[in-house]
Structures are given as C-alpha cells and as structure tokens.
Design brief:
By secondary structure, the protein is mainly alpha-helical. The protein has helices at 2-7, 12-30, 35-52, 54-69, 71-80, 85-99, 108-128, 138-146, 162-167, 172-200, 209-229, 234-257, 264-280, 286-298, 304-315, 357-362, 404-411, and strands at residues 148-149, 152-153, 318-320, 326-328, 332-336, 342-346.
C-alpha cells in the first residue's frame, strides 16, 4: 500500500491543505482538538470532491443512456449469434466502437476519486504513525491524534493492537465497535445503491453485458469494502461512508427525475407526470419537456409505459407536441353535465347519408325543377299509337319518397293508369 500511496504523493499536499482549511473553520466552532472539527473537515473534503466530479457524473449518465438506445441492436445480435458466444462478443464490441459508447463508463467517478482516496489514506496513515505530511505540521499532527469520533481516534484501525490504540488515548472496544458499524453502513449503502440501479433503473427486457456487469458490481463492491475496511483508519472510513451516502442520494435523484427508458422507474415517473399534466394541462420543468419530446419522437417504437402515457393524455383531451409541450387536442371537447361532471367527447367526422338507387339516378334536385321520371315510366299524356280508353284515368296516389319509383321500374307497370300492352311473343 505504501508503494501505491507514493504514486499519488503529488496530490497529498493539496488534500492536506484542503483539510487544514476546513479544520480552521470548524475548529473555531467546535474546538481545534475535537472529533467534530476533524471529522467535518473530512466530510467537507468529500463534498467538495464530489461537486467537482459532477461533470463526470453527467457524462456517465449520457453514456448510460447511449447504452440503453443500443439495447434493441444488442438483442438482435444475441438472437442471431445465440449459439456462438465468441461471435456475439465480437459483434458487441464492434457495436460499441461504431456508436462510441463504453460499457465501463459507470466506473468513471470511482476512478476519478481514487487519487484523492489514496492521498487521504496517506495523510491519515502519517497521523497514525506520528509523521508530518503535506502542510500538516507538528501542532496540527498532535491535534489530529487527540481527535476522537464516538470514542475512536481518526488514525485508529480495526486490526491495531491494544498498545497502539491505548497510545492514541482510546480503548479497543470503542475502536472495534465504531469501525464495525462504519464498515457495515458503508457496505450496506454501496449494496443499496447498486441494487436500486439494477431493480428500478434498468430495462429488464434485454439482457446485455452491461447488466451482467452491474449485477456483479452489486455483490463485489460491498465485499471489497468489508474486507478492506478492517485495514482502513477511522478517518478513511468516514471518507468512504460519506461518499457512499452522497452516491446513493445522487442516484436516487437521477432515478426519480431522469429514469432509464423501459425501467420500472420510468413507469412510476410517467404515472406521476400524467397526473400532473392532466390536472394542470401543461408541463412544469425543462427536464419534463425533454422526456416528453423524446417520447413523441419515438413514434411506434414507444414502450408500454410511454404508450400508456400518450393514451392517457388523449383520453384527457390533451396532445403532446414535438417540442415537448402539451396542449388541448382539437379533436376532443369537454362536455359538462348538469350535475357538474365533465365528460371528454371525441369529435368524429360525419359520414354522408346513403341514398337509394332511385335517388342516385334522379340526381340532386334543384328548386323549381320538375320531378324526374325514369325511362320505364310513361307520361300521363296519351300516346299517338295507343288506343284511348273512354274510362277516365284514376287519380294518382301519393307515394312515399324513394319507395314507389323503384317498384314501378322493376315491374314495368303504372299504378292506377292504363297498363302497358304486353308485346306478343315470337314464335
């Protein structure tokens, strides 16, 4: 470990300087030799480092989203080469290279803060051995050795002997209890963070190497912290417990406000967004507009939760636009009943009324036009070659529109008038 710590000795001085500056502030409040002053200095160092790592965390989120967009292609590769694991891995690597994504991008924040971790370990190890390091002089060294957190010195370790612990002014029981509690909390927070990522923020419909990697890290990291934690000073345990709690809260915020498409977190997020949009009729924040815009752009490629979201907006008389905004749909109206209840009615296009055959043959009637007659009907005037009957013709009976014309045309007879003579049959 000394060899590894010496590799990061170039950052030891800046880390020790930051700790001393925070100690000056907290020492004026709680006292320079108290565990609160030195403990809060370490916590503040963690917060400062994690704030500086936020750009890397944003890059990690974007890389994770890029991995999610590749999942349909990954699924096709798995189905195509399901019997050839080597070819499947080669095609996966080729896909990563073409898209510019890296499945190991989730480890960027951990790798970035590793130099600070080793520098802090080197500083605390120097305090435990009574050696000045960085900007920590003899006076600050003596103050740090007197600082206790719940009865455990900052430089004490779980595996230290009784003589070493007594030299730091503490008891073995206090050191063992405090270190065990910190190790358990550190491992539990790490496990919960990874489990939350696997169960809520991952699209479980596609099995990818990325998911297998996250599942492996979910069990490996807590075991690593438990094994290595017994060799860490209490100050380093404070550092790792603080950074794990920060990571857990940061992950919860991302899952709640920017979930992965196709995950359980997205279904819960869209359900909350649906309630808000249907109540207020608009989208609140820019992040929500970005998510709605992405859902609209997918079209038919939407997953089940996204289709449910669009259908809920349609039932409420709303429509999502391409720019991520939500407005009232023109094809729907809201009708209010007498009892005060409202009902959404969809305006449908009216179909033209179907006409009968006779109406289609007669054509549209204009005002003042004479009623049209079919070719099979005879005029009321007598024909020149037709014998006249002395008997007056019976008056016509009024007929219902569209009913008698067709029957006359089919039978070839005139109702109530002289009948048409039948043509003689040809022999």
């Amino acid at each position: 470990m000394d060899t590894i710590a010496s590799l990061f000795s170039f950052i030891t001085t800046p880390v020790s300087w930051v700790i001393v500056q925070f100690h000056t502030v907290y020492g004026a409040i709680f006292g320079p030799d108290t565990g609160w002053a030195w403990g809060l200095s370490i916590v503040s160092l963690v917060i400062l480092i994690r704030i500086c790592l936020i750009p890397l965390f944003v890059k990690q989120i974007k890389a994770t989203r890029a991995m999610q967009t590749l999942q349909p292609e990954m699924k096709k590769i798995q189905e195509r080469y399901k019997n050839d694991k080597q070819r499947q891995s080669e095609e996966m690597m080729k896909l990563y290279k073409e898209s510019g994504t890296n499945p190991l991008s989730s480890c960027l924040p951990i790798l970035a803060q590793s130099p600070f971790f080793f520098a802090l370990y080197h500083v605390l190890n120097g305090i435990a051995s009574g050696q000045t390091i960085g900007v920590i002089n003899d006076q600050l060294l003596e103050s740090a050795r007197k600082a206790h957190i719940f009865g455990a010195p900052l430089a004490a370790k779980f595996k230290d002997s009784a003589d070493t612990i007594h030299a730091l002014g503490a008891s073995v029981t206090d050191v063992r209890v405090v270190t065990v509690i910190m190790i358990v909390l550190m491992s539990a927070s790490q496990f919960y963070t990874q489990r939350q990522l696997m169960t809520k923020n991952v699209d479980t419909t596609v099995k990818t190497p990325f998911m297998q990697q996250q599942k492996m890290l979910m069990y490996v990291f807590p075991i690593m912290f438990a094994v290595f934690g017994i060799n860490f000073p209490v100050g380093v345990l404070v550092y790792w417990l603080t950074t794990n709690v920060w990571t857990m809260g940061q992950q919860m915020y991302v899952i709640h406000n920017n979930p992965t498409p196709g995950s359980k977190a997205q279904a819960a997020y869209l359900e909350r967004l649906t309630k808000h949009v249907t109540t207020h009729g608009k989208v609140r924040r820019r992040s929500e507009k970005t998510i709605v815009k992405a859902i609209v752009a997918k079209g038919r490629d939407r997953n089940e939760s996204e289709r449910k979201f669009i259908n809920s907006l349609t039932k409420a008389g709303l429509a999502a636009a391409a720019d991520g905004t939500v407005a009232k749909s023109e094809s729907q109206t809201v009708v209010q009943a007498e009892d005060g209840t409202t009902t959404t009615v969809t305006a449908r296009r009216q179909q033209p009324k179907r006409q009968s055959k006779a109406q289609r043959q007669s054509g549209p009637k204009q005002p003042g036009d004479a009623p049209a007659t079919t070719s099979l009907e005879k005029s009321d005037e007598p024909q020149a070659d037709e014998p006249q009957d002395d008997k007056p013709a019976a008056p016509k009976q009024p007929q219902k529109p569209g009913s008698g014309t067709r029957s006359k045309a089919q039978s070839g007879q005139r109702k109530g008038g002289p009948q048409r003579p039948k043509s003689p049959s040809k022999k």
